[in-house]
């Protein structure tokens, strides 16, 4: 009898690796592998190729921390972007979210995380020094601190803002308020108070 | 501005393919890709290699329908397995489940699905002919129909059992009853009735 691992070493290894992706566990990884093999031409082969391509080509932009096949990345190289504004985000997922929303024409700076003493993540583990360096460039006039409205995000925002005081730039943060489409009855008190405080002329 | 797909073509393609795996969607696929790139050496590279290996090597056993790098598969070639008993399962996931439980020393026959007229899946789409052929072998004395206790599973079980009547074999099915560790209060009436009907001496 094959015992505890009936799938054989190749499939077992694939299942174990897939199970380490966020959102998947051992059971869903097994289902995913069976699905892949059922769709060999449409899914398994293209996925193997796509992963290899990403592993070989995608690199981290040495300027902003974005992911791209070129360094500097396509955003840093895009002359149509506003080089005078830097938008600071926690990770590349947040950068993607802002880009999907076409929310800004600024360039980005990816910190690579937030300060979290409990997890042992201090200022030196983030790309904060590089940010201050970029902000000192006279061409830069504004830094938008677009960090998550969580405790760690806001702690990091305050830390970064303090350091940016020495660079001669305007520092702004995202507005707090009612999400578009949001219902007042479902919002927390902090958001409602902020929305009233920052009320705008109609 | 990069518009709707800020991640670039290589990452976009990987996200799209991962999003087609069961259990993942576009959002979790994006998170998975960022996680992969953060763990390039521990996860991205090994996963790319493991997928390529599976794509190149894993094949379907022409005897039983199991997945393996060899044909016949390691279970069909294992002389310690009982060649006189064939255990019929719906898919390879069910075969793996029975093997993990070390539930049987029988060899397997993977149907590759269940009859489902609504989905256009008829007898010719399943490996039913091959099963009858194997069951006709005089060395085979029993076929265990280990299909799911769902409507489609049981319909298929009846269909297969009828066809097996002409082959000279004993046909058995899995016992219905209280799952080990199960609480009566949470079980459906059908299961409880079956458990009483099939009660055993203590």
TrEMBL record, chains A, B:
A single GO molecular function term of this UniProt record: zinc ion binding
Cross-referenced CDD domains: TOPRIM_recR (cd01025)
Record GO biological process: DNA recombination; DNA repair
InterPro entries tied to this protein: DNA_Rcmb_RecR, Rcmb_RecR, Rcmb_RecR_Znf, TOPRIM_dom, TOPRIM_RecR
Zinc finger (C4-type): 61-76
PROSITE patterns in UniProt: RECR, TOPRIM
GTP-binding in keyword set: no
Domain Toprim: 84-179
HAMAP family xref list: RecR
Protein's recorded name: Recombination protein RecR
Origin species: Lutibaculum baratangense AMV1
Gene name tied to this protein: recR
